[in-house]
TrEMBL record:
Organism lineage: Bacteria, Bacillati, Bacillota, Bacilli, Bacillales
Catalytic activities: 2'-deoxyribonucleotide-(2'-deoxyribose 5'-phosphate)-2'-deoxyribonucleotide-DNA = a 3'-end 2'-deoxyribonucleotide-(2,3-dehydro-2,3-deoxyribose 5'-phosphate)-DNA + a 5'-end 5'-phospho-2'-deoxyribonucleoside-DNA + H(+)
Domain Formamidopyrimidine-DNA glycosylase catalytic residues, every copy: 2-112
Domain FPG-type: 235-269
Entry keyword set: DNA damage, DNA repair, DNA-binding, Glycosidase, Hydrolase, Lyase, Metal-binding, Multifunctional enzyme, Zinc, Zinc-finger
Organism, as annotated: Paenibacillus solanacearum
Listed name of the protein: Formamidopyrimidine-DNA glycosylase
InterPro entries: FPG_cat, FPG_Glyclase, H2TH_FPG, Znf_DNA_glyclase/AP_lyase, Znf_FPG/IleRS
Gene of this entry: mutM_2
Length: 269
């Protein structure tokens, strides 16, 4: 499932391609992927320009000039493709937004969605989400408070969107590895210095991952050579049996809080 770096990568790639451009046509291939009738969706989206593209947690927000917002969550299996009709993948399209001769195709939105909202609804829509990892108000002390509140495993706390927004299975493991902490550690057991290391590791890992296009190899357009570039840079995620880059011991796969998790049992504590 795309996480913060993947969606931030898509946001950056889309800004230069669709911001300021008018949506000339809309096609709905699956009504369950939207939250209003196809007639209302088309009526309120067609003819509007995209004023900006934001990200909140694992969502992309397409702000339109009529103060409506398209909220995208790709969930498991969802993807986007941007290009001309000849670039359309040989798959069913759940939603298509056209910008003249170019189109943004939304594919695989079986669990994911593209919902239409008023700007005034966003605060309540995201009210249960925790702070962003790069929120200036998220200090190491505040992060410690949020992690220790539920006294869960570190893995479970990092992927809990009400604790921190945007981190999922991949980057929780990568962050723990960078911080030399086991994903199975209880948050109540973390010392102050470990929290500070975790905080710095979170920012370092997420920044690097976004810079290299995330770990999921789902290119946005035909010439997209950036998306998925972090996959080969993952240190532990999906690296079961491979040698740890720090100590050489094999990376282990475990079940932590009913989630698959990868770590080095030698150099993570």
């Amino acid at each position: 499932m795309p996480e913060l770096p993947e969606m931030e990568n898509y946001r950056g790639l889309l800004v230069g391609r669709i911001v300021g451009r008018t949506i000339t046509a809309v096609e709905i291939g699956r009504e369950k992927s939207i939250n209003v009738s196809p007639e209302q969706f088309c009526r309120e989206v067609e003819g509007q320009a995209v004023s900006r593209v934001d990200r909140r947690a694992k969502h992309l927000l397409f702000h339109l000039t009529n103060r409506k917002v398209l909220v995208l969550h790709l969930m498991l299996g969802g993807m986007m493709v941007y290009g001309r009709m000849e670039d359309k993948p040989d798959r069913s399209i759940q939603v298509r937004l056209s910008f003249g001769e170019e189109h943004l195709f939304f594919i695989g939105l079986r669990l994911g969605y593209l919902h239409l909202h008023d700007e005034t609804e966003l605060a309540s829509l995201f009210a249960k989400l925790g702070p962003e990892p790069f929120d200036p108000q998220l200090t190491p002390d505040r992060m410690a408070e949020r992690l220790r509140h539920k006294n869960s495993t570190l893995k479970n706390s990092l992927v809990d969107q009400s604790v921190l927004a945007g981190i999922g299975n991949c980057y929780s493991d990568e962050i723990c590895f960078q911080a030399r902490l086991l994903p199975a550690r209880r948050t109540s057991s973390l010392a102050e210095r470990e929290i500070e290391t975790l905080y710095a590791s979170m920012k370092e890992v997420l920044s690097e991952a976004a810079r290299y296009g995330g770990y999921m190899e789902m290119p946005l357009f035909k010439e997209d050579a950036l998306t998925g570039g972090f996959d080969e840079r993952c240190r532990v995620y999906d690296r079961e049996g491979e040698p740890c880059e720090r100590c050489g011991n094999p990376i282990a796969r475990q079940e932590v809080s009913s989630k698959k998790s990868f770590c080095c049992l030698q150099c993570q504590q």
